[in-house]
Amino acid sequence: MTGSKRVLLAKPRGYCAGVDRAVQTVEEALKLYGAPIYVRKEIVHNKHVVSTLQAKGAIFVEENEEVPEGAIVVFSAHGVAPEVHEQAEARSLKAIDATCPLVTKVHQEARRFAAEDYDILLIGHEGHEEVVGTTGEAPAHIQLVDGPDSVDKVTVRDPSKVVWLSQTTLSVDETLETVARLKTKLPLLMSPPSDDICYATSNRQDAVKAMAPNCDLVLVVGSQNSSNSQRLREVAVDAGAKAGYLIDYASEIQDEWLADATTVGVTSGASVPDELVMEVLDFLAERGFGDVAEITTAQEKLVFSLPQELKRDMKANAAARAAEVAKTLS
Ligand code: 2E7
Ligand code: F3S
What we know:
Elements: E1 6-11, H1 17-33, E2 37-40, H2 47-55, E3 58-61, E4 72-75, H3 82-90, E5 94-97, H4 101-115, E6 119-123, H5 129-135, E7 142-145, E8 162-166, H6 172-185, H7 199-211, E9 217-221, H8 227-238, E10 244-247, H9 255-258, E11 263-268, H10 274-285, E12 292-296, H11 308-329
Parallel strand pairs: 1-11, 1-12, 2-3, 2-4, 4-5, 6-7, 6-8, 9-10, 9-11
Helix pairs in contact: 1-11, 4-5, 7-8
Residues 18-19, 44-45, 77-78, 100, 103, 130, 168-169, 226-229, 269-271 line the site of (6-chloropyridin-3-yl)methyl trihydrogen diphosphate.
């Protein structure tokens, strides 16, 4: 049996463009303004990312009130309600908004449909920061639909003027089911102008679906509060993996999980640095799973530029330094 042990490694996995931008935003802010930099909520839902940034001087807070007046605050990738921007202004905070541009797009859709007086059915998980932020754009027009079983509770003012939007990190299949149930109840329900479940979420789920039927177990690297990572574990099991586990670190892997396994699938959520996946591969190799085959279902090239407010200060700083150098040389 030892000779046939192998690992299937999903690709795409790990960092998406929005996470890369958000993490870089905090890193660049630390370099530019110096520590401490305050960050409202976890910049992304990953323990390792948060503790690494803490060690570099980031201070994570739950609310703006915890940030000293006039200090710098970064808003997390999951987005914030407009009132959070207003609170920051009232405290004279310098806010840098690391909201993923694909979440900003959903906020814009919410504002537009609310302005046209639609009832908006937001499919998402109750209490998730992204859902809280999007709902804050138009609380009077938005109601949450937390999965197919919540459809029965939905009531609308005018069944001919209803649209659904969604959180970006949902299960693609479960969302299709929720929408189908909603359409049975509300045949005139409108769909969003473009997909709200983002490219990274659906690509990672596709890759897991491709490998899961051949896996005895799938290890998903990701934190417990990471919605997209949780969905990957569920998708793996639904697609045929005999078991699925969500782990932050390789050290959490239990030998009994591997005892009867021949093929182990590995993937990671959109907030997970690939070094953590490499540590999982090292751990598995030490236990006889050294043969690794990457299962690639898509290529990703999307890159987002840093928030405008940060780029502007970085540029001004670079110009000031160049002027100083020129003065020294003259
Ligand atoms: C922002 C958004 O930080 P995550 O684990 O967040 P989820 O939403 O999956 O809990 O992953 C990256 C990310 C995903 N969506 C960041 Cl809106
Ligand atoms: Fe953005 Fe999707 Fe990543 S919404 S933060 S690209 S998981």
